[in-house]
Structures are given as structure tokens and as C-alpha cells.
Design brief:
Blueprint: H1 3-10, E1 16-20, E2 26-31, E3 35-40, E4 45-51, E5 78-79, E6 103-110, E7 116-122, H2 126-131, E8 136-144, E9 148-156, E10 162-164, E11 166-168, E12 171-173, E13 180-183, E14 189-192, E15 198-201, E16 212-216, E17 223-227, E18 232-239, E19 243-248, H3 250-255, E20 268-275, E21 281-283, E22 288-299
Antiparallel strand pairs: 1-2, 2-3, 3-4, 5-11, 6-7, 7-8, 8-9, 9-22, 10-21, 11-20, 12-20, 13-17, 14-15, 14-16, 16-19, 17-18, 18-22, 19-20
Length: 300
């Protein structure tokens, strides 16, 4: 669909407009009475979300690269249909292919409360079917309002069950990592990638003082990022998710990433809602699975 066709069919006045950015990539610009947000059609990638009168909630690297087939540093990358490395073929892309392939706009609408709803569908190709041979559909539903609600919807349209791992790899903006504590995962077990996936139990709130890469398992609980610098808390409420991933690359790794650099890791933390490791989802023929995350701001 051309840019003109997108705007003719799916634009909503000044509230939803589509425009091209670098390398012919297209974004949906959403602006309503509650918030503003940009969503990149490649990957159905929510790149930004900022409630009116607030600092941005979703972090996007100022060095983020927008190029066809390349992942974007920041925002809400979609890890689908597997999280991390593919369990049997190391040549396949980490975190799956959904974040680097085209998605199509299926629906946009203004909601009665002033929020804006958008629905996207992943576009299948010979390349995607070669990596994921299971007949299925995947859609992303985004509601931009006072809160940001994201629903990743997978339907098994095949005649056999399949296993699915997934995550919303969300980057949150914070004042400084030294001013931040993550609450809600106390007493939860996690697998620590930094220590060869050794298993530990979280004792207190999470404070990031070095590289952190953890998969908290069997935890459907809300998480709250307490940010003393911005005097706010970001609440991460979820449904259909039994895993929470916490990630910050810290200085050494960030310096080696061209879209991070030496200091930008201090402005962000990833708290990802998903189903990974021992929490993979088995989807029976005809079943639909919804992974839902809702991000809202509270005053400290």
C-alpha cells in the first residue's frame, strides 16, 4: 500500500497520519488529547510514547538506525516467534524475525475516551515461512491513551500444536540508572544470562549497578520502575505473560554498540513482558494467545 493509500484509508484527521522516514520506511504518527506516539510499520515497532505533560515513557536511542531489515534500538521491539537464540538453529536471528519484517495496517479508530486504537498484521513471505513453518497469524493491537496498551495476538491456524516464546522488549526512559529501583519481582526466581543462566532468587528491589540480563520465570505480577530523579513510577501491568526480562548492557557492552555509545545506557532500562525459557506457550490448533502489557505513569 502506498503512503497516499495509507493516509486515504487509515488516517484520522490530525490524530493519525502516516509519513515516510529514512530509507522509505513508514511511521504512523499518533497524537490525541492524552499522548503522542510514533509506530514504525516495519516490525509494528512502537518507537515512542509520551503522555501529555510528562517526560517520555518509552526510550528511543538518539542513535537509532532506521533501515529495512534492521532492528531499531529502543521503543518496543517484538520478539516473536522465539525469544533469544533459536533453540535448534543458531543461524536464525536472535529474538525471531517479527521486529525486522513488514507489517500492514489493518485498522485505526478513535475511541470514545479520546484514546487511539491501531491494529497491525505481520506480512508473511517465503523467507518468514522458511523460518517458521507453522501456519499461524500474528497481530499487534496498540491503544495510545493516558496509558499505552499493547497486545500481541498469535493464532494457531495449523492442524498441529506448536511452541511459542515471545516478548515485548520494551525500553523505558529513566532519569539515570543510579536513581532507579524496579519493584514487584521480590522473591521471584530468575535465570542470569551474565552468569551462564545460573538460577537465583531475587531478594529485594532490583538496582542496576553493572550488566544485567535476567529472565524472571513464573511471575505474572506487575512491575514498577521507581525513578527518584523524575519523581515518578512507571507501572508495567501484564496478562498472558509468565516471564519478565530485565536488561541493561552497562558500559562495556554499550560502548561496542553503535546505536548506544558509552553513556546512553544510563538513560534506559528494559523490563520485558513475555513467555521465555520454561514459560514457553504451547498453542493448540485453533487456539489464540494474547500477550498484553499496559504502561502507565504514577507519581512517587
Amino acid at each position: 500500500m502506498t503512503l497516499t493509500e495509507l493516509n486515504q484509508r487509515f488516517a484520522i484527521g490530525n490524530h493519525v497520519q502516516f509519513r515516510e522516514i529514512a530509507d522509505g520506511m513508514t511511521i504512523a504518527e499518533v497524537a490525541n488529547q492524552h499522548a503522542v506516539s510514533n509506530i514504525v510499520l516495519q516490525g509494528a515497532h512502537v518507537a515512542t510514547f509520551q503522555p501529555r505533560g510528562e517526560e517520555p515513557v518509552i526510550w528511543l536511542s538518539p542513535r537509532a538506525k532506521f533501515a529495512p531489515g534492521k532492528s531499531i534500538r529502543g521503543g518496543v521491539p517484538i520478539c516473536w516467534p522465539w525469544f533469544g537464540a533459536h533453540k535448534s538453529d543458531s543461524k536464525l536471528p536472535g529474538h525471531g524475525y517479527a521486529r525486522t519484517v513488514p507489517w500492514e495496517v489493518l485498522e485505526t479508530k478513535a475511541l470514545p475516551d479520546g484514546a487511539t486504537f491501531l491494529r497491525f498484521g505481520l506480512v508473511e513471505s517465503d523467507a518468514t515461512r522458511a523460518q517458521w513453518p507453522h501456519p499461524s497469524t500474528v497481530q499487534l493491537e496498540v491503544t495510545v491513551g493516558k496509558a499505552l496498551r499493547i497486545e500481541l495476538v498469535t493464532a494457531n491456524t495449523s492442524n498441529a500444536p506448536f511452541e511459542l516464546s515471545e516478548a515485548l522488549h520494551t525500553y523505558f526512559q529513566i532519569s539515570d540508572v543510579a536513581n532507579m529501583t524496579i519493584r514487584g519481582l521480590e522473591n521471584c526466581e530468575y535465570l542470569d544470562k551474565v552468569q551462564d543462566f545460573a538460577r537465583f532468587t531475587q531478594q529485594n528491589g532490583i538496582v542496576v549497578e553493572s550488566e544485567v540480563d535476567r529472565v524472571y520465570v513464573n511471575t505474572p505480577a506487575d512491575c514498577v520502575i521507581e525513578d527518584k530523579g523524575l519523581k515518578r513510577a512507571i507501572r508495567i501491568a501484564k496478562q498472558g505473560s509468565q516471564s519478565t526480562v530485565v536488561w541493561n548492557p552497562w558500559t562495556e557492552k554499550a560502548e561496542k554498540m553503535g546505536d548506544f555509545g558509552p553513556a546512553l545506557h544510563r538513560d534506559m532500562v528494559c523490563v520485558e513482558s513475555g513467555n521465555a525459557m520454561e514459560n514457553v506457550v504451547t498453542l493448540q490448533p485453533g487456539e489464540t494467545h494474547r500477550l498484553v502489557a499496559v504502561y502507565s505513569v504514577e507519581k512517587l
